[in-house]
DNA sequence: CCTCGCTCTCTTACGGTGTAAGACACTATC
DNA sequence: GATAGTGTCTTACACCGTAAGAGAGCGAGG
């Protein structure tokens, strides 16, 4: 019974590997333990429960988002949104988690706080700042969810399995035209992002 | 062994009740069966598997969204977004499902197709129309997710459990100021929605 | 009336899940 | 070498989704 030299960080590393490789559904405590050469219950010495693993993964993702509030706020907010998008696209299997769990972990809160501070410096009220962040973040998450769900390398089955072109001609036509390359996605993303940003302002 | 007089619809009714009452996590086939006075396996006569139950719930939600494409497109698109928001708020427990599952069920597709057709009539290309719909839908879902997660009547624990006001002053200040009434939420929603809509146009 | 066949429901079973409780082994310190 | 953590494993429980098949109930045809 040699010691495995585990740590919270190593466990999260392995969890992220596992999720990237086989998807979220494959992440179970037993499977994660096996990945680390350890029984499932051992993990509970480092983490209180499975939710803590998931929170840890989300937190890492959010903590890695760049926040550089210099210059006109719309410009760095745009960069922030792009950075968030990149962070999410790096581990698309985590998207359902990020989309669903409210931000309450240290890394996520830290990122939020930094953006909020900078927005308040731009004459947003704290409440409005939070709302702008929520709007931006959910916008980005939604876009990436849609993009990652319809991009090559997707887990599930074809995007629209039971699509009858007679009944849904426009949708069928759009899908038949293809959904575009990664560049197309980024292009559409920035287009909609700018649309949104240009309409937001301190009130 | 009396017959229970079940049907797909009745099962989905009960599932929706259950989810509204006890949250998504409480929805299991056994529990749903018990709710209907029936063993779990009986449900498999009407639905192929649990995913079909979830899809059915999402489909109902999406099918009930009003699409009335008359007048200037930004106006009816705005109404569509508001209708979607209302449909989502009616069953907030379904949000994680709606946010996560790609639209592939008949009711959802029907709604998408109707909006897409109307947008194409406004000189959007089919691809762009789909993108506008995606953008609108994910925007609404994201907003409602944020709103429902921070509104009284929420399942989980307090929104920001481990918030240290010294470390996160702005976030703390905003939360201390309160998140507002339902009207405040709708106000912020329409504000951001208009910001987004005013920036979108056929290209 | 019976009986056939279809529709519906239940029973049993399998392999998976998260995790509580506690026993045990290893290791660093005295 | 004995002791006291620290780390790991074993066992167990209650749950999950669902495959396979047995069996009940019921309407139709004889």
Characteristic terms for this protein:
203 residues, mainly alpha, DNA-binding, homodimer
What is the topological layout?
The structure is a homodimer of 203-residue chains.
Chain A: H1 8-22, H2 29-35, H3 50-63, H4 73-90, H5 95-100, H6 106-121, H7 126-149, H8 169-176, H9 182-199
Helix pairs in contact in A: 3-6, 4-7, 4-9, 6-7, 7-9
Chain A binds a DNA duplex (30 and 30 nucleotides) through residues 1-4, 6, 28-30, 38-42, 44-45, 49-50.
Written account of the structure:
2 copies of one chain form a homodimer. With 203 residues, chain A is mainly alpha-helical. Helices cover 62% and strands 0% of the residues of chain A. Chain A contains 9 helices and no strands. In chain A, helix 4 crosses helix 7 (126-149). Chain A is flat, with a radius of gyration of 20 Å. The N and C termini of chain A lie far apart (63 Å). The structure holds a DNA duplex (30 and 30 nucleotides).
Task: Offer a quick outline of the entry.
Chain A is mainly α and 203 residues long. Chain A is 62% helix and 0% strand.
Biggest sheet overview of chain A: none
The largest contact between protein chains, plus residue counts on each side, is: A-B, 60 and 59 residues
Radius of gyration of chain A: 20 Å
Order of helices and strands of chain A: HHHHHHHHH
Mean pLDDT of chain A: 91
């Amino acid at each position: 019974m040699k010691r495995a030299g585990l740590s919270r960080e190593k466990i999260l590393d392995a969890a992220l590997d596992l999720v990237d490789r086989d998807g979220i559904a494959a992440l179970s405590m037993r499977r994660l333990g096996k990945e680390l050469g350890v029984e499932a219950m051992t993990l509970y010495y480092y983490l209180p429960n499975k939710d803590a693993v998931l929170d840890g993964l989300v937190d890492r993702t959010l903590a890695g988002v760049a926040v550089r509030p210099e210059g006109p706020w719309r410009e760095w907010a745009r960069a922030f949104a792009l950075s968030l998008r990149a962070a999410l696209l790096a581990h698309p299997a985590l998207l359902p988690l990020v989309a669903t769990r409210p931000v309450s972990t240290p890394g996520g809160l830290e990122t939020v706080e930094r953006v909020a501070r900078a927005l308040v410096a731009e004459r947003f009220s704290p409440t409005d700042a939070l709302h702008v962040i929520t709007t931006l973040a959910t916008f980005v998450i939604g876009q990436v969810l849609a993009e990652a769900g319809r991009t090559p390398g997707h887990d599930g089955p074809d995007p629209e399995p039971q699509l009858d072109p007679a009944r849904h001609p426009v949708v069928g036509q759009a899908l038949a035209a293809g959904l575009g390359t990664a560049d197309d996605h980024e292009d559409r993303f920035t287009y909609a992002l700018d649309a949104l940003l240009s309409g937001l302002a301190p009130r």
